[in-house]
């Protein structure tokens, strides 16, 4: 009950304006901005429902490096290896969708809507399309002027709860918010290379071990499997029920249900989808405001892949 009270309280007090960010920031400068983003994301979602997981991952990997400044979108050049070149970002995808949205927005409102806001809005919209909660996000972010491979340090699939907690704490996020955001693994897939070392783990359901062993048997390539083996493409709280049943695919996922630091909240979320959704709204909105650039800081890129000249 303590966890329930805390989560409900956070939901009602979380603000809708953050410094120079505000809901409806483009109301005058680009009135159709959010509609344009939503329409393009909807078209992509209609033919590829996995885009929700891709955008959630992109959003997280962007915000946890230099803050939510779209530095993850920058292509490497001869003189600079960007964040994209980091091993942790090797399977991040969806960049072409951001390009498509940016192109449409540049036609409608040149040099107005930032790439950082595009990532945030596209992620928000895709979550709702996948069955997740609908929520408002403040906009007004500006794009960063730096993207370096050396800045990338992210918690990985083999992290312990304590190690992952340290990474989240460094970005101003609590343990409860970490458990909440990892619930986004209710959609998406993982490559065998991220969990092959768990195929003899006694903390994995034997039936799942056998299934994953068959999937990962091919010697060529790096096959994938769903992180949520039940409601694979639906954004819901089923992930937490799965890890309680020892059906977590990634080590960090399973540890959430086993570690006393996180197991109680896992049980709360597994038993109450509404509480999970409210907590997710708070956590994803807070994450989207990590070290944002506003006002005259940063830039509004014309092309999300390159810095303005």
TrEMBL record:
Co-factor binding details: Binds 1 heme b (iron(II)-protoporphyrin IX) group per subunit.
Binding residues annotated for Ca(2+) 2, in chain numbering: 186, 228, 231, 236
Coiled coil region boundaries: none
Binding site for Ca(2+) 1: 62, 65, 67, 69, 71, 83
Enzyme superclass (EC): oxidoreductase
Catalytic reaction annotation: 2 a phenolic donor + H2O2 = 2 a phenolic radical donor + 2 H2O
CDD domains, per database record: secretory_peroxidase (cd00693)
Organism domain of life: Eukaryota
GO terms under cellular component: extracellular region
Catalytic machinery residues: 61 (proton acceptor)
Disulphide-bonded residues: 30-109, 63-68, 115-304, 192-216
Cofactor needs: heme b; Ca(2+)
MF annotations from Gene Ontology: heme binding; lactoperoxidase activity; metal ion binding
Amino acids binding heme b: 185
Binding site for substrate: 155
Function: Removal of H(2)O(2), oxidation of toxic reductants, biosynthesis and degradation of lignin, suberization, auxin catabolism, response to environmental stresses such as wounding, pathogen attack and oxidative stress. These functions might be dependent on each isozyme/isoform in each plant tissue.
Family label: Belongs to the peroxidase family. Ascorbate peroxidase subfamily. Belongs to the peroxidase family. Classical plant (class III) peroxidase subfamily.
Protein name: Peroxidase
Organism (species): Vigna radiata var. radiata (Mung bean)
Highest classification ranks of the organism: Eukaryota, Viridiplantae, Streptophyta, Embryophyta, Tracheophyta
Encoding gene (name): LOC106753859
